Structure formats: C-alpha cells, structure tokens
Amino acid sequence: MLKRISVESILVMFLFVMFSASIGILIVEGQESYEAIIQSKNENEDKRIAFSYISKKIKQNDIAGQIEVVSNPYNDYNALKLKLSGAEEGYSTYIFYDDGGLIELLVSENEAIDKELGEVIIDLLSPLEFEFDPNYNLVNVYNDDEFISIGILDMEVVNEEW
C-alpha cells in the first residue's frame, strides 16, 4: 500500500508540473502575440498619420503649378515639392522619406538643400514613394502595402534632382 501511494504521488506531481509548464508556455506565447499586435497597430497608426499629413499639405498648397514630384538626391525614392505662395513666396517645402522617417524640409529658392536641416515628421518602418498620375491628375503616395491618391488642380511632372 505504501508503494502504491508513492507512485500515485509521483503521477500527481508529474501532472502538476505538466500543467504548470503549459500555463507558462501559454503566457509567453500570449505576450509575444500581444506585442506583435501592438507593433502592427503602431505601424498602421504611423502610416495613417503620414498619409494624413501629406494629404493636408497637398490640399493647403493646391494651386496650379505649385506641386511637383521630384527625384530625391539622397535615395531612390521621389520627393514631393510644394512651392509656397503669399507671404512665404520664394520658399519651397520638400517632403520625402529618408533614414526611416518622413522628413519635411523648408528652403528658400536660392538656398542650398541640406536634408540635415529638415524636420522628422514621423518615424516609418517602410519607405514612402510619391508619383504623379497624369491621367487623373492625382498624386499617389504609397509604401509596401498601402497607398492613397490625392486629387490636385494642376501639376508639373519634374524628373530632375532638387
């Protein structure tokens, strides 16, 4: 009888250890899933902020001949050039992706362009690209898996470097 109790005790302890191990594995897996979901949510939120910011800037400067898509000298992606008018005439704003972030750079027409003077609007994990669709007069802004199209009045397509 004594031998039987010790075998039963060992089996109960073994089941308890197995149960505890499976609870621990569930907690670790749940934490990893939660972190992946939060990271994905934050990436999507950053993309929405970037797209919204670009859309707002284009709509603020939607004057014939004021918006251009130009090639970016710092990388292989295009940049958006917004020629300012009114009190800011003679200045241009460049919006482009570089070094993991969306950058806005305000420069005068006779000033040398230096990306170090730009301001990082938001950090992005995937690059943004700008392109002009002449068939529908749209600026397309896209990255790896999403894009938006913003209608404009009149646009010049420029394939020169800044």
How would you explain this protein's 3D organization?
With 162 residues, the chain is of the alpha+beta class. It has one domain (46-161). It contains 1 helix and 9 strands; from the N terminus they run αβββββββββ. The strands form 2 sheets. A 6-stranded mixed sheet has the order 5-4-3-2-1-9, with helices on one face. Strands 6-7-8 form a 3-stranded antiparallel sheet, covered by helices on one side. A hairpin with a 7-residue loop joins strand 2 and strand 3. The radius of gyration is 27 Å and the shape is elongated. 19% of the residues are buried. The mean pLDDT is 84.
Give me some keywords for this one:
162 residues, alpha+beta, six-stranded mixed beta sheet, three-stranded antiparallel beta sheet, 1 helix, 36% helix, 33% strand, elongated
Topology:
Layout: H1 2-60, E1 67-71, E2 78-83, E3 91-98, E4 101-108, E5 119-123, E6 129-133, E7 138-142, E8 147-151, E9 156-161
Parallel strand pairs: 1-9
Antiparallel strand pairs: 1-2, 2-3, 3-4, 4-5, 6-7, 7-8
**In percent, how much strand structure appears in the residues?**
25-35%
Structural class: alpha+beta
Tell me which oligomeric state these chains represent: single chain
Strands ordered across the widest β-sheet: 5-4-3-2-1-9
Q: In total, how many domains does the architecture comprise?
A: 1
Q: What is the number of beta strands?
A: 9
Helix content: 25-40%
Spans of at least 5 consecutive residues whose pLDDT stays below 50 are none
Rounded Rg = 27 Å
General form: elongated
Largest sheet features: 6 strands, mixed
DSSP helix count?
Answer: 1
